Amino acid sequence: MSNSFWKWSQLRIFLNYSIPKNNFEVKQINKYMDVLKNLNCKPYSLNILNKLELESPEDIKKEFEKKFNLEFNPQNFRDVRTKLLSTSSGIIQLEFDQSNCGFEVAYNLYEGSKAPILIASHENNSNPNAQIMTQNLDIHVPTEYHTFKDSSDLEEVTKNFIDNLGRRYNLEKFSYHD
Predict the structure, then answer these.
(1) How far lies 61's CA from each of 25, 47, 90, 110, 156, in Å?
(2) How far is it, in rounded angstroms, from Cα 58 to Cα 66?
(3) pLDDT digits (tens, 9 = 90+) for 98-134
(4) E strands within the chain?
(5) In which element (H, E) is residue 51 found?
(6) Over pLDDT 90: what percentage of the chain?
(7) What does pTM read for this prediction?
(8) Phi, then psi, of 20 in degrees rounded to 5
């Protein structure tokens, strides 16, 4: 009889995006969730802390209440997000218009875990005033910046970010030992 066991380390990823305003944004978020699913256990186990199943922009409230068993309101939303942010290994921020992402970034920098950040901004993101919030973050925490046309194109960038997180936290790679 062999001594087989699984050995892995888990990265806790906070996926940050503003509340989707249209079906295009929902589709891009879901495509990116597929990217993360494809990278799970390659080579690190991923725990997406705030994963919500979205089919339309209106689903975020319903899914929040279902997943966290709390009424969706500003205080509960902030409380859950700050608790998750404070335990995250890394933050991945998808930006479509950058209207609501400053809170999470500021919390991470000044109160949270100071986790490394991957910022992926859609190529049609044209809000110059909001972009000021996420420029030059690398003086505070390791930060990567990328532009994307379709979120499924971010697989290699995300894989590199995850690999860097694994090395940063000195995690063992997911493997099966016999």
Answers:
(1) 16, 21, 24, 27, 31
(2) 14
(3) 555 678 888 999 998 999 999 998 888 766 555 566 7
(4) 5-7, 10-16, 45-48, 90-95, 117-122, 143-148, 175-177
(5) none
(6) 51
(7) 0.86
(8) -60, 135
